[in-house]
Amino acid sequence: MRIRSRSIEEVINEVINAPLKGERPFSKLTSLENLPKPLVELRKALTRVKDEVEKDAAVVAVLVLYKTLVKNAEAYKEWAGWYGWARRLVEEEKFAVAAEEVEGLRKAQKRLEEAAEQVRRELNSVLALYALHSRELYEKLRPHLEVDFGLAERLAEARHGELSKYSNANIGTKAYAALLSIARGGICGHAATLFMVEGALADVLLLTPKSAYEKAWKIAKGRGEAVDPSRVGAAGWEDRAASALLRYLLGRAIDEDLVFRRVKGGFEVFRTYGGVEARVDVLKIEGQPRSKPGEEVLRLFVEEARRTAPDLSGIKNIWQTLEWLNTDVSFAGRQVVGGTVRLWQLRWYIALFGEGGD
Description:
The chain is built from 16 helices and seven strands.
């Protein structure tokens, strides 16, 4: 069957909708010719998968992922521009970041978060479609494609030493986590971008996160890059500093004019107002990037989390959330104790447990 005259999206939709005509997604994919490289590589990668249901699930997830990336190409191009901007800044001994630039950075990240959300919605739509036409197929594919939010959130920000914890992540969760990780500067996101360039997008979903990292590491080494820019010695200081700067700016509660001065191991951070500078923070670069915020910064951080805490009323699958929380909180007597520097985690703490401490 020749498909030269049709768009890639039309081909993808034909494969995904194959069950409506009594065909399997994998069988439909193998019957098509003149496929783009990512889909050719997907077909090759699936030869090592023995489980027929897993093949169908992988086909659906990779095609959804591929379609999302194509639709959001400009957003990813814009994000690459922001990384280059940060890379140039950290080469200086002193540099300024305007509040308008932080706002632009936040908007760019929001577009990446929205792309990840598109993957989740598309997978849900596919499952809903299959449920209407073949309950048997739906029941078979649902365990592979249904996204576990808590697991995806953790995987998106996991460090290389933590990846083995997520070997049980299903295909849908890994697809969602990959794009979410790009937005959050995580290892899985960087590995996914390397696989995209190599036309091996299927490996993001078919390999365990640890195995995907190891394969991506080999690709990165050949390109003179690093999969995890935060690791000491894994990349140049400027690469690690750029990654840390972006995380720092995105993690702040408010947008304001800032000045950064190079010190040993990182930067001192100053707020500027009316020509006067006030030291507010220290951004450390060695190892896992971190900061030492002052009391006012912490207060603003908590206030922002309170303002944006999610409304959890009506959530049915609360046990997934609790599974996620077990890795981030502990229990002391009748109190729930948790510590985090991530705004999204604090939002969930407040939404689930309210407030009763620092």
